[in-house]
Structure formats: structure tokens, C-alpha cells
């Protein structure tokens, strides 16, 4: 897993252009002054501690954890231009920036951000400052490098963390950088340790020259950063930073995270905040409001579905090819939240255009009865024979444990179905629920592939991708995800056929969801359904 090093100690998960070194907004060699840092020991003088204040609260829950807090940055000109990551400043109400040796913060203004390159240029209200210059030589593997920043993972309260450097070397200059927060064609992979809070700080050589901008690390199974670490490379950064001095690049004015749940086939860009006066704001996209408000998820841009691979790759490709100031069709799903920030089941589908007079308007609307209320916890249910067991939301209280609960025409076997409304589950595409069938007799007639062939929804739905292998640790087989059933864009249908390792019986599982509010329920079904082969 590759995640960004988010500000405030949270972990989250990076395209070079052939620009000549020195295109950094006023720090070429010809303009070098005595304030330019010329040694590793003095890099601290030009490295910044940044607190992003205000802004949005932590989203958490099934939409992904997004938070705002602190990070690092560095000065690139003596008149106060500085660089950091977009995800350090994104969504903040204002910045407090600390310069080395100063106890009080200086005011800073965000001049421009790039959602896709995860870069931002800020302007400090100060002058005559020490600044870093870019390395002019080749950046190659084995180059000795140092990270610099203010890791905040071991600091509590309002303390300013200590400035820290770590040493390592470049492993690769062409690492992949497609993540949930950015889309960078290539980045520098290195092994100089980056800790949470060091995002936006410089990666420098032994002379204190900037090689790249630290922004990400791999995460181990315990949620801790682990080698290798990643920095946005010099050439990539310089091509963007000079543009950011004059405004945003590859950005429609949102802070957002790519979100995907492969089990239910739902994906998009979750919007956490919106910049006033931006294309997104003018179109009517709204920022996340956790206290009984709403959350917007951008699911399509220019007719293209977004984030199906869990990254911003497609989203950023559209922006870069079209230009972020071009008219673009957009589709948004807006979910109503309760006072605790949980989806209520009520949501709207909106369509409109960015950079045009066509603001978002509601094209579909769904009531709260279709969603799954998981606030009441889950319930274990079984069929009448006791062979099938599964955990479902307590709100799926309409339960049928007889063989009639599944479709006719299959060999004899138990079945179990649950939903808030079983009639709605079997007769419409707007009600969530599950139906499970198992049979020992059916293995004489069917394989998982041929059984799944019997459940062809192509007359009403669209197959999302292709048939996939299925393995949940207990059962193996095949699965399909169907979307847009009956024209309901938020609807997803998961179809699974599988057997245990010994092939003694076969199972068919059908799960219907009506939006992200059912993601947790669908995951719980897949994690918990079991069949007692001895009872068949």
C-alpha cells in the first residue's frame, strides 16, 4: 500500500517535465544571493513548520480518513516564496508558518495549488530570508540524500516538533506515483526515513541542494511508514511550481480523495472542501459538512467513471487533457449525513458542467428507506435448516430462511434472504439486501462459472469490467459486479458463485447495494457468510 504522509501525523498515499534546473520562481544561479543555503548544516534555516488551521473535520468512516494538521515546507526565494504539498494546506482555513529560530508564526498566503501533482506555492509575509536552491547535477540511483522536516508523530498538544534530518540514498528516479491523493507520472524512490509531518519538506543532497519534495511512504501491516519513501522529483516540481505562483494548476478547486470499494463496485472522488470562486464552487459542488450536512462524491467527469482503481489517475488525465478551465460534464452523488456524520440513506444524483452556465441540478433522488442503517449493529441470521449463516445489519429485519427465498429452477438446497424489504429486493433495484443459496446436489450439474451463467443480468444492468476470480479464504470461485441496473446509477449488484476447497457443495450469493451507505453491510456479508456442508 502506498499512502501520503498526511499532515498532523496521519498517513495517506505520486510526471516529470524536461525543464532546466533553476526555473523556480527567482532562484536561478544568476540571481544567487548571500541568503542561498550552501551546506547541509544550514538547510534548517530555510525549512518551515506549517500548521494548517481551521478547515474540514476528519471524515473517517467508509469514505476514507482525511484530516488536516501540520506539515513541512521550504523557502525557495529570499522574498518569501515557499513550497509544500497540496495535502498539507488543502482544506485549511488559514496557515501558521514557523521559520527556524522564530517563536511566533508569520502570515502566509496560498498562491496556487495542484491537486494532481500534490504541490503548493505559498508566500510568506517576510523578506530577506534564507532559501534553498535546486541541485543542478544528475539525480541518479545511489545519490546520497537527506530528508528535512518537522515530524509531528511524537509531539502532543501545541508543541512545535523538533527539526529532523535523516540520511539515505536514491533507489530509483522513475517510481510510480498514482495514488488516492495525486497522480504524478514518476517520483524519486529513496530510503531516507520520512516520518508523518515531514510532508512538504525537502529531499536534499550533501550540499543542501534540493533533489525533490517529500510526500509519501509505504505503509506496513501495522500502519507504520516503512521503506521505500517517495519524493516528487526536481524536474517534475520545477515545471509546476513556476505556474503555481500565478494560480492553481490541474485543479477544479476541491480537496478530495479517490475512493473505491471493489466488492460493491462503487468509486469516485470524495470532496472534503471547495475553494470559493473556483470552477467547482461555481458549478455547485459542496464541501463536506459532517454535522447533519452532506458529502459530495464526484463519480464521473466528461462521461468517464472515476477512481475505479482507487487512484486519481483518470480524474487527473481528464483535467490535463481538457485543461482545468475547459467546460466539462460532471456527475455528483450527494449523500445526506446524520448528526454523527453517517449516511442516512438519502441521496441525490446531480449533473452539470464545470466552467459553464450549467450548474449542477438533481436528475435522480432517493429516499432514506433504501439505504442500510448500520447504527443498530449487526445480527446473525440462519436459514430454516441451520446450514447457512451470515451477519447482516439489524435493519435488514425482513428475513426468509426457506428454499423459496432464492430463484426457482435450481437443484434442491437451503436458501436465506434478508433485506429491509424483501419484496423490494427481488422486484426493484432500489432496495439493499442479500440472498444466499447452497446445494450439494448442484455440484453434479454446475461449476461456479456455469452457475454464475444462470444469473445473467445483462438485460437490465451493465457488467462492470469482467468476471473475476473469487477467494475469501473459505470459498473459491468467480464473481461479477453489475451496475446501473434499471437505470439506477447508484445501484450495484454483486453476484458470487463458489465452492469449498473439497468441492463438496456449491454456493450462490447475491448482494444488492444502493450506494456507499451499503458498503459496510456488503463487506460484512462477504466476510461472514458460511455454509455447514454437513447440514446439506
Structure description:
The protein has helices at residues 86-89, 234-244, 279-283, 313-322, 422-427, 448-453, 519-528; strands at residues 2-4, 47-53, 70-75, 81-84, 94-98, 108-114, 119-124, 144-149, 164-178, 183-190, 202-204, 210-219, 225-233, 254-261, 266-274, 294-301, 304-305, 328-337, 343-354, 361-366, 378-382, 388-393, 398-400, 415-419, 433-439, 462-463, 468-471, 475-483, 492-500, 506-513, 530-531. The protein has 536 residues and is mainly beta. Strand 16 and strand 17 form a beta hairpin.
Which terms would index this structure?
eight-stranded antiparallel β-sheet, 536 residues, single chain, seven-stranded antiparallel β-sheet, mainly beta
Average predicted local confidence, pLDDT: 84
**DSSP strand content:** 35-45%
Number of strands: 31
Q: What portion of residues is helical?
A: under 10%
List the uncertain runs: 1-32, 56-68
Count of DSSP helices? 7
The radius of gyration over CA amounts to: 26 Å
**Structural class designation:** mainly beta
**What about the largest sheet?**
8 strands, antiparallel
Amino acid at each position: 500500500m502506498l499512502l501520503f504522509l498526511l499532515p498532523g501525523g496521519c498517513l495517506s498515499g505520486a510526471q516529470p517535465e524536461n525543464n532546466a534546473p533553476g526555473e523556480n520562481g527567482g532562484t536561478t544561479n544568476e540571481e544567487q544571493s548571500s541568503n542561498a543555503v550552501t551546506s547541509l548544516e544550514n538547510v534548517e534555516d530555510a525549512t518551515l513548520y506549517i500548521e494548517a488551521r481551521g478547515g474540514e473535520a476528519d471524515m473517517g468512516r467508509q469514505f476514507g480518513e482525511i484530516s488536516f494538521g501540520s506539515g513541512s515546507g521550504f523557502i525557495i526565494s529570499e522574498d518569501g516564496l515557499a513550497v509544500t504539498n497540496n495535502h498539507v494546506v488543502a482544506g485549511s482555513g488559514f496557515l501558521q508558518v514557523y521559520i527556524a529560530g522564530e517563536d511566533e508564526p508569520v502570515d502566509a498566503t496560498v498562491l496556487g495549488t495542484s491537486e494532481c501533482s500534490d504541490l503548493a506555492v505559498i508566500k510568506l509575509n517576510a523578506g530577506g530570508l534564507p532559501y534553498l536552491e535546486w541541485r543542478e547535477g544528475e539525480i541518479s540511483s545511489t545519490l546520497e540524500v537527506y530528508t528535512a522536516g518537522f515530524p509531528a508523530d511524537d509531539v502532543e498538544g501545541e508543541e512545535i516538533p523538533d527539526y529532523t534530518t535523516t540520511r539515505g540514498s536514491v533507489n530509483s528516479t522513475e517510481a510510480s506515483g498514482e495514488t488516492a491523493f495525486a497522480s504524478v507520472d514518476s517520483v524519486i524512490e529513496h530510503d531516507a526515513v520520512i516520518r508523518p509531518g515531514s510532508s512538504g519538506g525537502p529531499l536534499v543532497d550533501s550540499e543542501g541542494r534540493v533533489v525533490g519534495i517529500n510526500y509519501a511512504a509505504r505503509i506496513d501491516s501495522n500502519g507504520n511508514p516503512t521503506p521505500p519513501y517517495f519524493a516528487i522529483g526536481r524536474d517534475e516540481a520545477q515545471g509546476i511550481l513556476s505556474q503555481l505562483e500565478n494560480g492553481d494548476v490541474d485543479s477544479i478547486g476541491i480537496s478530495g480523495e479517490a475512493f473505491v470499494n471493489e466488492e460493491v463496485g462503487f468509486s469516485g472522488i470524495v470532496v472534503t472542501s471547495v475553494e470559493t470562486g473556483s470552477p467547482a464552487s461555481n458549478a455547485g459542488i459542496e464541501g463536506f459538512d459532517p454535522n447533519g450536512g452532506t458529502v459530495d462524491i464526484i463519480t464521473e467527469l466528461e462521461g468517464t467513471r472515476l477512481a475505479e482503481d482507487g487512484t486519481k489517475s483518470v480524474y487527473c488525465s481528464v483535467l490535463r487533457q481538457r485543461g482545468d478551465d475547459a467546460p466539462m460534464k460532471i456527475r455528483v452523488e450527494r449523500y445526506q449525513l446524520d448528526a454523527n456524520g453517517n449516511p442516512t440513506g438519502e441521496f441525490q444524483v446531480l449533473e452539470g458542467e464545470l466552467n459553464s452556465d450549467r450548474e449542477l441540478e438533481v436528475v435522480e433522488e432517493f429516499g432514506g428507506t433504501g439505504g442500510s442503517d448500520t447504527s443498530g449493529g449487526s445480527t446473525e441470521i440462519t436459514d430454516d435448516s441451520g446450514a447457512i449463516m451470515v451477519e447482516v445489519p439489524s435493519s435488514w429485519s425482513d428475513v426468509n430462511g426457506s428454499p423459496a427465498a432464492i430463484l426457482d429452477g435450481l437443484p434442491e438446497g437451503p436458501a436465506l434472504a434478508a433485506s429491509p424489504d424483501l419484496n423490494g429486493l427481488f422486484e426493484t433495484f432500489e432496495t439493499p439486501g442479500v440472498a444466499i443459496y447452497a446445494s450439494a446436489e448442484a455440484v453434479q450439474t454446475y461449476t461456479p462459472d456455469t452457475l454464475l451463467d444462470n444469473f445473467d443480468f445483462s438485460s437490465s444492468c451493465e457488467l462492470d469490467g469482467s468476471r473475476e476470480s473469487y477467494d475469501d479464504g473459505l470459498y473459491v470461485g468467480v464473481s461479477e459486479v453489475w451496475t446501473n441496473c434499471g437505470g439506477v446509477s447508484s445501484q450495484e449488484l454483486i453476484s458470487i458463485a463458489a465452492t469449498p476447497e473439497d468441492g463438496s457443495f456449491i454456493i450462490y450469493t447475491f448482494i444488492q447495494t444502493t450506494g456507499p451507505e451499503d458498503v459496510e453491510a456488503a463487506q460484512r456479508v462477504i466476510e461472514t457468510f458460511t455454509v455447514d456442508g454437513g447440514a446439506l
